[in-house]
Batch of 4 targets.
Target 1
Amino acid sequence: MKLTIGVPVYNPGKYFLLAMGTILDQSFKDFEVLLVDDGSTDNSGKFCDDFAEKYPFIRVIHKPNGGPSSARNVIIREARGEYVGIIDADDMIHPDYYKRMVSVLDETGLPVVKCGREYLEKGALPENKPIGKGYEIITTKRAFKNDLCELRRTLLVEGMCTKLWRREVLQQGSFNEELRNEEDILFVFEMLFKFDKFAKIDDTLYYVVQNENSITHNSQNCERNLIHIIRSREIMAERVKDLAPESLNVIVNNSLFNIFEEYKYWLSKGVQIPQSVRDAIIKTFAPYENILNFMIKKQFEGLKRGENKVIEFYHKKTLRSIYKRFMRYETYRSKH
């Protein structure tokens, strides 16, 4: 079997049938679908069984709720295909998604290929534009620098859904089951140190549906999401300290900047940030305070004083632009 399409399923609601429709409509046909019902409390578990009864290439595993990391780890262990893709149960894919991705891995022999994605407005359907044939081969060293050190448009270090992996490579890693936010970014980051090159295609083949009921958008999960992002970035800093110590300074600063961006997002939604989140940020980054640059240190000190205004002063895009220029100056200064 050429391909396993893994789908963690937890209460995706009305979007699940749309997602499954785009999987069943794939032009590439040599695949199995592995649905992992992660303790859904809506009708999703029954829908999974209905699909498996109708289509012999669909398998279902029901398990108690353990979060997306737990469900993805089941997929990694149970996949039978030469290649493995893991997509969300409330998103959609281009009809040629797997045809295109499989062809690139077949041609290059590389461990993973990544495509482009598009965020759909509520109720919108994808246009499914014609796809090309070109691709770019990128080193993981370049992706590490680009995505994590320079905060540019991501080459690889983002979620799992835009990627297709060779099974033997994917099975070298596992998701941190303690985390329910940024667990996918942490996973991809750690995988960067297990291979040297990957393929990137510019075609937009994956469509992210803006599900207002998803874990990441639900304000009731704000505290947990922020705590888990902080923990993910803490683990990342610890790994960098061991594997790429020369990058620790910039990784710590960029990680704290990303956390402040998320913090500001919830403030903009009118959510009261619990003291536990502030305490976690302070505890996690206090050991690195001496390497924080001026801009981030100012925000960090403001947070310690209980000031939200330091974080929410700039518009997000403006702040990111200022911060990028500041970091380029810091990098230049450190070399001269």
Target 2
Amino acid sequence: MNTTYNKQSYYLAGLITLSLRLVVGWTYFSAFWRRIFLKPKLDPEFAGYIGHKFNHFLPNSLGIKPIIEYLLLNPDSLWVAMVIFTIIEGVVGLFFMLGLFTRAMSIWITGLALGILLAAGSLGTTCLDEWQIGILGIAAGFTIFLSGSGKFSVDYWLMKKNKSFTESKWFGWLGSGVLPMKTKSLNKLVITGSMLILFITLFTNQHFHGGLWGPLHNMSIKPKVEISNTKLVDNSLSFQLYRVEGVDVYGSFLIDVTLTNKAGEKIVQLDAKALSKFPKKQISNVYISKIKPGKHSMILPLGAKGTVTVIDDILATMPKGEYTLKLTDVSGKNWSVAVVK
């Protein structure tokens, strides 16, 4: 076969990319290490359960939202998925660092990075954190697929031991050494793969952050709460809240919920103290990240969705007409919606 370069050329390429392989491998293996050995992040009862992080991805994920929502609506399946995902990250990351079946692991690295990019590309308070992790992981996976691993790898050791399978075509695709491709085909693979990754980079940068044109935006800085399904019946007012933007490491803190009439008169008002003592049984949550009363406010984690029901006898005496429901966050932001009785 008219291959592009000899073994020594590929050994050199793999040697040059050693630091990239070690660092990228650790970023994935470390996720396994943290969840298993440092903190019980796979325990659904633990405050830092990885499932809550998964819930944060939901509002602004790209293309895979139905999968995320299905898992969130089925907590048992979510736990199984998180365990499997963690094991895969651990195995792939470790094998990648060791240089064992390097090209097969690079394909997994690329897939995992793409998943991170699509799920969490919008997150990042001081920088485009998750977007950068995702897109650089894709580029690194593709690069290591092309180079394979060099002298400091298990693949190299197996080849030097003259293991028969290392001479097979499949090992060239899944391990290291010479890629079984002709020069022209390799050139096409490099330019096509690179342009595709550049397209994904520019597309997702624009989609998540407006990085190419228009105003830059960061959905991880200021909280945003959507209000829907408002109902005013008898002595109860119910409304669904869905927090879709803001910092993922802590919630939005509601300090005021007010219902006013057209004249601007307050009919019902719940201040910070009342919201901190709001009955949990009057909050119906949809996902595992829950809207709940906190110490000084009502807490809305990123991705949390739930129906809040306010019960007050004065609601039953109100005349029919249009009212305004206004929510105020501790940051000063507020959100309003019309309510019709």
Target 3
Amino acid sequence: MARVLVVDDEEGVRSFLAEALALDGHAVSESADGLDAARQLDQHSFDVVLTDLKMPGMDGEALVRKLRAEQPEVEVIVLTAHGSIESAVEAMKLGAFDYLRKPVSGPAELRLLVARAAERRALRAAADRADREVEQHGAPVLSHGASAMARVVEAIGKVARTSATVLLTGESGTGKEVAARAIHRASERATGPFMAINCAALSEHLLESELFGHVRGAFTGAHERRRGRLELAAGGPSSSTRSAR
């Protein structure tokens, strides 16, 4: 799970957000203002920062500017009150991942948004590591220990040259996503986005929205149109992992 910093000068709001995210398994820290948040960010590393925009001292927009300049890898979600959407849009132009309206409709929307931000943070980190490995050692080769895997590696090379739909099955930890990424790297769509989706981590009522997106007003808390993973994956492959049972 992610390391999350919750920044809000309203203690009740801050506690609600922190508790909801902690129950979801995240390691959560709290801050009552932008200046304290800046100090924590200088001393500790975080994956996601959830910050209010209107705060005394350093406001949320200034905090976003600081993060983009000094820690661009950290994903930022801004909290905005009704009627202040313009400020949230400006924050997103500065590089914020998304925004959440106050009062927050419930923990489900909050947890989904933070999960998506954390996943993008992890994917970016993995992509950066892969890029460094390619720069140092050239394109990675899928390695294996058992001779039986040679047929799998050969099949991966063959199917990567086609536009066929591929289903990878196996127990947890057998390397399904590794194989999917290998197919992606060797395919004509290697320059397109690779979307890895852990369906098991999404509740049944959120899965459809996550995959296909939703329009404004589709359900309680759907304040704006959101693009689904399948739309975001246009031009590249999408990987959905599920362990065999």
Target 4
Amino acid sequence: MIYLYNAIFLKPVFNALIGLYNVVGDMGLAILLLTIGTRLLILPVTLQTLRSQKALQDLQPKINALKEKYKGDRQGLAKATMELYKTEKVNPASSCLPMLIQLPIFIALYQALTVGLKSEGMHLLYGFVNNPGTISSLAFGFFDLAKANFVVAVLAGLSQFWQTAMLSRHKPKNKIPGSKDEAMLGMMNKQMLYVMPAFTVVIGASLPAGVILYWLVTNLLTIIQQYVFLRPKLKAISVATVIEGSKPEIREK
């Protein structure tokens, strides 16, 4: 099992990190490029997740109607909800995929930085990746990636809060009066809005700054993706509408 993990995650991440370091000569920049590359690699999964989240939000009024219809009938509500998901082709579990994919990469990066910043573990290098020998843990010329950095941890926590808040703002406001499940879900979402950023800061302050830099950049890229995908549609006329709308003006002339 460990051999499989090393072959699929640790070695590729370590080699990508060292290979990028060989090219750019700065571990901070290498982590930045590795993060961007990782996000591009899982972009199809991320976009599918955002579509599913948006679809779930759009379905909320129908789900609320089912809750009202099957009030007191949990089994009937569960069956009707699953039928609705099937009809609308929405998978509520798909939102977990990016996290499940990123978690082993995050662990592998932590291990890669642990041995890489100490210039150890070079036996993990592929034959076509040069051994740089001594690796400088100084990033961008001003902070050490091998040591914990509270400022980077706080920035990661703030970015986590921003990312979660963006999704919260896009949730529909209509709720069923007196619905305990709805109230409990809202309470959990509100707690997650503050608990996860605080957890990120606490844990991040004890990890090497290189690992938290990866998490910070990941959050920022996720925020950009969410903004592009979830932003309100611009009130603009489509090209086809413009063309059709220009016809009456031509005829009037």
